Amino acid sequence: MNSGGRSTATVRCRHCSTHLTVPAGERAIQCTECCRVTRVRQCPSRLPVTRPAAAPMAFPRCTRGKKRAVLIGITYASMRRGRGCAALTGPINDVKFMRHLLCQRFGFSSDCILMLTDDQKDPSRLPTKDNIRKAMRWLVQGCSYGDSMVFHFSGEGAQVPDDDCDEVDGNDEAICPMDSFQQGPILDDEINEALVRPLVHGAKLHAVVDACHSATVLDLPFLCRRSRCGNWQWEDHRPRSGVCKGTSGGLAVLIAGYSDGKSKISATPEAYASVGAMTHSFIKAVECEPRGVTYGRLITSMKAIMTNSGGRCSLQGPVAGAPVSKVANFSGVQEPNLSSSVLFDINCKPFAL
Asked: Alpha-carbon distance 44 to 316, whole Å?
């Protein structure tokens, strides 16, 4: 097949057998019927596909130093089809609350925060796969010593079998853009290459991801999670293939929620405005804990908030319309995890953006 000068292929969904059209060069596609993701096997005999040059994006004008952020919230309200494909509640509010936190608590300039949400009229601010790719490049491009960058994603995540032997658990994680049915998700390999590897000495990136299957979505070498004894412990997730997944000297930290994909996901009545459980616990913990709180204390506080909030939102922020009163666990988060490009003592190292 050929569409607009680009060849496409057809694959069958590995979960429900629906026939899916895949753009050339993409490694996975989301099913329009069951919303699950299917790996696209690449033919090694074919030449690599060169993607056409994308239209330039109107980036925020800010100094190339110090603090900038990309905040992405996707409800999929106008994009979903088929069974099991209901719209999410909360992601757009998540972005608004995160922006408020960064500006009020950590001194980020609003001009240096790029927001991509699927309720925007400007096509360059919609969270399509192409726009998210460009936003990730903008975030870390030209980073230098002293830069602090934040990447926040609130939406749907996915998991597909690994095909290059660089995952300890045998699965790649992914985030789903608003056009994931047409263009496919963005796999952790690409996210790592775009956001993690360019970080130079003295530059730091914090990512907060509110999506299912997101605990290792940055493909960072080390994962910290709670042991059976209740202590936070590091696990070595460096690929057995020897492929480097670290930075170029900087620090990358991911705060994401653990979800086994089987937990019950709460449904929030449409009459309520809501916020995602993972985002809510992060913002609330930051607000409640003193400045300079350690990473260990932060994620412990997040877990307590997830457990004890009772589904009620207690955040104060700039959300117009109906008051945000409910926490929607659309990602099925069970507890927060932390992963990093380097090992450190989470009970001693202070958290700061």
From this structure: 53
**Which residue ranges make up each domain of the chain?**
2-39, 67-340
Per DSSP, 193 falls in state I
Q: Which residue has the higher pLDDT, 97 or 316?
A: 97
Distance from the Cα of residue 217 to its chain's centroid: 7
Has residue 57 got a pLDDT over 70?
no
Is 103 in contact with 97 (CB distance < 8 Å)?
no
Helical (H) or strand (E) element with 6? strand 6-12
- pTM for this one? 0.88
Q: What is the CATH number of domain 67-340?
A: 3.40.50.12660
Most confident of the following: 95-109, 149-163, 230-244: 95-109
The token duo for 54 is 């994308």
What residues pair up with 152 in beta bridges, in sequence order? 71, 208
Backbone phi and psi for residue 10, each to the nearest 5 degrees, phi listed first: -115, 130
| Closest by Cα among 128, 92, 96 to 110 | 96
**Nearest one of 223, 130, 108, 212 to 177, comparing CA atoms:** 130
